[in-house]
Structures are given as structure tokens and as C-alpha cells.
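Self-study notes.
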Amino acid sequence: MRGANLPQPKPMVTLQDVFGSYTAILDRGHRLCAPTNKNGEDPIAPTRPQHLTGYDFVSVAPNLVEPDNVQVDNQFGTYTVDVRNPVRLLVPSAKSLVAPPPPAQIPTDIRHFLCHNLVGVQGPTPAGITVESQFAANVVAVANLGAAKLCAPVNKNNLDPTAPADPNFLLCFHTTEQTGFGTLNVFITNQFGPSTTQFTGQPFITQYDELCVPSTLH
């Protein structure tokens, strides 16, 4: 989901995933990924606390040569993609609609993910996907395969050295929604602090614009 005024991160992180090692300066977050009941397959997902805040990059280095013709498998089918440099970091976060969550509620059972731009994406473009999160229910469709991101488990600041060997990726599709989402205020806490101490305005989310699907590479 797209949002604004999410927590302001520390400016620089080191990152290592299966594709390479990077140093990135992070911009403020503007996405919140929530557990989702997709097509009625996981009815308890909206009650789960494992959220991820997405931070785009001000800069990232070096510009590595990354692989072409990577095959990505998920429940929608097989996709062939050319992987390019990373553009976003997903950070485990606690969320509340009423007050800033305490740091003890930040999930520790999910990893950070490093999301890479893709080009030459080929594969199915599913539509009519029902989604239900803690925020709303809706119907979405994959709008533009070329805007998809491949998110890899990442070792951030050398705190999770086994992450690059984790085979559990996310393929994040850009989607359109059937009905408007509206605007909803949220409170978020993660390793960069609570959102309410970082901004004058309250963080908010505005729409479903991405669906991240568990995926594997081969």
C-alpha cells in the first residue's frame, strides 16, 4: 500500500543479498506492506502483525552487473526477468491504528528484503485478485509487468548473515484497485523509531498499489 510520512530511517545502510553487496542512503518510507488474505487462501492473514515498511533509496552503490533471464516461480506461473540494481528496502515494522506501537511489538520472525528493479519481464498478468488486509478488502489486477520488483532476503548491516541464502523471495507486482481505498492514518514503529516522533504530520496510507507474492528462483 502506498503511504506518506512513514518513519524517517538512518541515512546509510550496508546490504548484501544473493545478487551482490551495496551501500545505500535511504529516503523516508512511503509504502506499508500488510499481511493479506489473497483469494480467500489465508483467512487469518489480516490479524497477523508482520508488516514491512518500504524505504526507497536516495542513492545506492556500486552499480553491479546483475543477471538476465532469471526465472521466478510463484502461484501465478513462471516469469522471466532481467534483474537490475536495488531501489527499495523493506523493514519489519509494528503497526497500530490508535497509538504508536512499543518497540517490543516490532516483528522478529520476518527478514528484511531488498527490492530490485526488473526489465524484460515476461509472464502471466493475473486479474480479479481478491485481497483483504487489516485495512480494507478490494479486488486488484496486475497493471504493468514492467513495474514489478524482485525482493530478496537481505543481510542489513551484517545483522543477518544467513539471509542471502534464504530461497524465499517476493515478486511485487504493480496493481490497480477496483474501488478507491481512501485515506487511513496509521502509527508505525520499527528500528528507525516511531513515526510520530519523526514528523509533524501523521503517517497515512492511501491505496493498494502493489501485491507481493512469495516466489522462488530457478
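Second protein, same conventions, sequence then structure:
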Amino acid sequence: MPIINRNQEIFPYIVVLKRKNQQGFWMLSMAISFLFIIYLIWKAIQSPDWIVLTLLIITLNGLLMAHLYSYFKKGKKEMYILYITAFIALFFMPFLLGLILVGIAYLGFLATQPEEIGFNHDRILIKKMFKRTIQWEELSNAMIKDGLLTLDFKNNKLFQAETDDEEDNDEYDASEEEFNEFCKAHLKP
């Protein structure tokens, strides 16, 4: 059975939503990494300890090239280069700039995490930056149609989001009809 939270609570249905801002954070990570390498080159020219900085520059350039290769050849938009750059920046940049870079890396990490909604027999758990619980009594309808999740609340609020079939694990794939029947069985009139 699929699991969504740390308590190992079982959710029979987990819907993964599409992330629209991953490309922007990927571009931001590349730009920040490139600017940090330029900063290190400038420090290496000024520093008497140029050997250590030169080795660091070569290492970061290698990571950057590996990251670009994975994007252009494999189509993956992983952000590990930003995390490594942020960690190294804490030691070589002024503390406040390094701290800002770590903050940006953390926001990038949160932005690229899959957004999941777990459907349980007693509640619905939305896992975003912060978790939110919705009781079945709050909903008048819940369904997926043509890859679009719709949660219709009794207080006239409507939540719609595209589902991401690429993130779904094939082992737990369920049809839209199966999911809709599960939701219909738990909705209270």
C-alpha cells in the first residue's frame, strides 16, 4: 500500500500533482552556480592560497558540466548542483551571502518536491510545503477526470490541479473510475 507521511499511515490512493515551477528553479540554480564560480575565480586571482580555490573551481565546473549533461542528454532537471554550491558557498563567501544562497537552495528543494494528496478512509492529506488535512465531511465532490483532480468543497471553494502520471508508481496505478468510486463511497451527502 502507498504511504505518504512519517507515521507510516496508509493511504489507498495518492495523487501526485504537476509542478509548474521546476524549470524556473533549475535555471536559477544554474545561474547561481555560474555566478558563484565567477566569484571563486575572482577570489582565486586575489588570494595567495590560489591552489585550493583553483581545485574548488575545477570541481564545481565538473559538477556544473555533469548537471548540464544530465539535463540535455537525459532530460532530468535535478537541483543537486545548487545544494552543493550553497553548502560550499557558506565557507568561501561572506556569511550573509552564503546564508542567502542556502535559503534559496532550501526554497528550491521545497519547490521541486512532488506535491501529493493522500486519500484515506477517514481524511484527505495534502502534502505541500505544509501539510493540510481535509475531512470528507468538508467536500461535496471529489473526482479525477481527464487527468484533472477536482475537490469541490461545501463552502463553495473549488480546488483543481493537473495530475502527474509520470510520478505515479505503476505498481499503485489505479483507474480514474476506481478512484472516483472510492471518493463517492466516502462523501457524505
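Instructor comment on the second fold: The longest helix spans residues 22-46.
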